[in-house]
Write a structure and sequence with these properties.
The protein has one domain: Heat Shock Protein 90, CATH 3.30.565. The two termini are 14 Å apart. Helix 1 runs antiparallel to helix 2, helix 2 packs antiparallel against helix 4 and helix 3 runs parallel beside helix 4. The protein has a 5-stranded mixed sheet with strand order 1-2-3-5-4. The protein is an alpha+beta fold. 50% of the residues lie in helices and 20% in strands.
Length: 202
């Protein structure tokens, strides 16, 4: 992907995410329908969004480990302040040649949205973020696993929920998959599986 195409993809992401969030928050403030605490939380999320977009432009050498280290640096303080104990179990992984800035941003968004869902809904005290290499029918893959000890939910009932579909849509852009395993009272495990090599779109 060319530099211009990278910039267009990142600008589109800013518009669709940060821009729409700020606009909807502004409308809610003008109507007086959003409490101050909710406004503060939205602003924190917007700051995280902007930082993640900027971070995705930094040289990562096609390395998922570097990507996750960047996210740990950015999101760690906020997660800790929210009372979430995060265990990072990140091992060395093969480089992903296709992992440029737009793709890195998609991966970061999936991780970010998963962690945001945990903060908002899971009532969890602990999160485990791990990586592993897998081989499926001779095809090498890299997996990012995010597992919490929260209240869980009925994944069979909520499999078509908006949040889950959003994660899957982002994953499809990367020729990746997102699997969610959860039951009420048992926590939730989200696994993002990335291809070691991306098939040609032609």
């Amino acid at each position: 992907m060319t530099k211009v195409a990278n910039e267009v993809a990142l600008i589109r992401d800013l518009h669709e995410n940060l821009g729409s969030t700020l606009m909807s928050t502004l409308v809610a403030l003008e109507r007086g329908t959003m409490p101050a605490a909710d406004v503060l939380e939205v602003l924190r999320e917007c700051v995280d969004d902007s930082r993640i977009v900027i971070d995705s432009l930094e040289p990562m050498g096609h390395d998922v480990v570097v990507l996750l280290a960047t996210m740990r640096h950015r999101l760690g303080p906020r997660l800790k302040a929210a009372g979430l104990n995060v265990h990072w179990e990140v091992q060395d992984l093969p480089l992903l040649p296709w992992l440029g800035p737009p793709q890195a941003l998609q991966v970061m968004r999936i991780v970010q949205e998963t962690l945001t869902n945990i903060l908002k809904h899971a009532q969890a005290s602990r999160v485990r973020i791990a990586t592993r290499q897998t081989t499926d029918e001779g095809v090498a893959r890299v997996a990012i696993v995010i597992e919490d000890n929260g209240i869980g939910f009925d994944a069979a009932v909520n499999r078509n929920g908006r949040g889950l579909n959003h994660l899957k849509s982002r994953a499809q852009v990367l020729q990746a998959t997102v699997e969610v395993v959860s039951q009420r009272g048992t926590g939730t495990c989200v696994t993002l599986t990335l291809p070691a090599a991306m098939a040609s779109s032609s």
